[in-house]
User: What shape does this take?
Amino acid sequence: MEKKEVIVPIGPYHPLLEEPEFFKLFCEGEKVVGIDWIAGYNHRGIEKISEGKSYDQVPFLVERICGICSTSHPLAYVNAVENLVGLEIPERAKYIRTFIAEMERIHSHLLWVGLAGHFLGYNTVFMWAWKWREPTLDIMELVTGNRGNYGIMCPGGVRRDMSEEDFPFVQSKLDDIKTKVEMLTKAVLDDPVLLARLKGVGILTAQDIHNYGAVGPVARASGVAIDVRRDDPYAAYNMLDWEMVVVTEGDMLARAKVRLLEIFQSIKIVEQCMARLKEIKGDIVVKVREVPPGEGIGHAEAPRGECFHYVRSDGTNRPIRHKIRAPSYVCIPTFEKSVVGGQIADALICLAGVDPCYCCTERLSAVAENGKTLDGETLLRLSVEKTEALKAKGTPV
Amino acid sequence: MANWKINMLTRSPWVFHLAAASCNNCDIEILDLLTPRHDVERFGIVLVGSIKHADVLLVTGCVNRKNVARIKRLYDEAPKPILVVAIGACACSGNMFRTGYQFAGPFDKIIPVHAYVPGCPPKPEAMIDGVVKLITKLKNK
Assistant: This one.
């Protein structure tokens, strides 16, 4: 029989999405029967650049992987280096790290809620969420000096101390956020329009989550209770009182619910951090004198899930291998279950549902040269050939 | 450019946002301009969905080898005259990524750029200031 599939392209420069990414939706009528993803538009070769930077410089590089999770990547990286060195950081630094990471989670989740509303054509939600996201950025600007890319993590602690004089301002802004987000949560979860668009759409079962290895709020919305903050605590999470938000429905509404409720948990953590920072005084950084040869792994719970960094050292001041795995990398393949089989009108909100971050994900790129694509083996052969040629010339490699 | 064209262009500039290989930070700050705190829609600055409707092209991020051809094509499709504003350190110079194997040059090597707003990320106020300076300069020409 003749195939009747129509390909609907989304991207690479789609007006609704702020990042370049390319999805091909295979449709039969209104129904989506297949999906394909072409990556590489956002690849910058960060893992390779990282090998040319010293251990102290890499946090500035990895926080520029993604502007939205610009604390998660440095946090996972410093965890990896501290794991490699076997270092215990000062307690005050742990609480400052937790403070920054949770403030980032608040801003990221509010950003997602706004974008989800934008994707549904419900711009009121977009404007509200982004308006109430501004106080978090004000706090960040006060504490770290910048609205994004905070530059606060360094191996062995944090670069900038927090001042007790700032806490009343932070608390007033947090109270502001809390009342507004309470209202937003009620408005989003009771809105008949949003319920019609979100309920029962893009369902992922717990089995799907296990099959694809999805992490973060996507997993927690399907009843899979995984969270690095609880399972393998880093920073100060095991010394604080907070709860993991897990719901079982697995649809788009559940994902929105998890993210909105996590904001309250984050506010709770930030308030506890401030209370403890008033009591704990002392150093904020331990100097890392020497990095021994070996391997280190570190992970952190980014707003989107587990962010994983691997660092290998040969005893010099630069990592010889730095591997990054961002949460979106494992969440994006779940589109095969959530988008396929649904209506084409629901596809875009399902694509947004995992809060995909393409600049985090794109750690490789296929480059077609003269019309042919170079695969891994060819690139390795070319690299070896080049090294041999340089050696033959007598250039030190 | 003829004077009447600049007059038309600078009255309520419609902007198109192009993210090359960016980190999203400049992009969310651009979106932030449209939301209630800064709200540049007051001045008739609207984010449009197609380059064919745009008067100003906002570019962010560094150019990589995969999207360089697409950026050129996008610029060719734009109605001329169009003003190009490079936003962020990556778009201006390449930032930390200029040593990477995938870096294909800063934006001004690919397409003409009329204004640069450095910063990582630049504050929304800096972006407004950049566009205002560009418009003032064009009007006084």
